């Protein structure tokens, strides 16, 4: 994955083109997800077959940018693309406005062989079933869906819950509707819960991958995490699901 570092270095130099109101969030998001982007790009390489790629929930357009620079034809959907208007215009990104919770996705049935739905599922607050069924509609019979989302049973969540601290700041997540223009995390899911949503929406799961992207600065803290994740992979902080349409 080191081969993607130069690409991400170039992206980092462009981050100020996102609207000034979102600058702090944009920089923080990139720093937090840089290693995930490398993993995502590798997943795309392993699962891409042909045709355009659809990325759902494009903003802050980091992955969209990387995919285009790597030569893929990529179309992004976002609830409000104007938030990254300068960045989109400079790099000629194809981002279509669409609220995937209420709008019909503006493509014909079976239009895409690869759909990316990463770090969006946990933000859905109206009807995840509707959204997944729309994705199912536009996925080709031999296509693949890549879905990633935080893991409810990440070891930090378990520790926080046992200490009586809950599983996050609910107010801060709803506040993002006002500060960022999109909902924060409504809730996080276990692998079994996401699997159920996918299966009930017409997908067949081909693989679940438990992921960790952080690089701890302290040796012993990093060693502790490695041991935990090796012994209990399901304690890792992120879930990745590779799915196809279920055969009927």
Keywords:
single chain; 248 residues; alpha/beta; Rossmann fold; seven-stranded mixed beta sheet; 9 helices; 7 strands; 20% strand; globular
Q: Can you describe this structure?
A:
The chain has one domain: Vaccinia Virus protein VP39 (Rossmann fold, 3-Layer(aba) Sandwich). It contains nine helices and seven strands. It has helices spanning 5-12, 23-47, 62-69, 85-90, 128-138, 155-162, 170-179, 191-200, 219-231; strands spanning 53-56, 74-78, 94-97, 112-118, 139-150, 203-211, 238-245. A seven-stranded mixed beta sheet has the order 3-2-1-4-5-7-6, sandwiched between helices. The chain is globular, with a radius of gyration of 18 Å. The protein starts with a helix and ends with a strand.
DSSP E strands, number: 7
Give the tally of structural domains: 1
Shape field:
globular
**Radius of gyration over all CA atoms, rounded:** 18 Å
- What is the end-to-end distance? 37 Å
List the helices and strands and how they pair.
Elements: H1 5-12, H2 23-47, E1 53-56, H3 62-69, E2 74-78, H4 85-90, E3 94-97, E4 112-118, H5 128-138, E5 139-150, H6 155-162, H7 170-179, H8 191-200, E6 203-211, H9 219-231, E7 238-245
Parallel strand pairs: 1-2, 1-4, 2-3, 4-5
Antiparallel strand pairs: 5-7, 6-7
Could you write a compact summary of the structure shown?
By secondary structure, the protein is α/β, with parallel strands linked by helices. It has helices spanning 5-12, 23-47, 62-69, 85-90, 128-138, 155-162, 170-179, 191-200, 219-231; strands spanning 53-56, 74-78, 94-97, 112-118, 139-150, 203-211, 238-245.
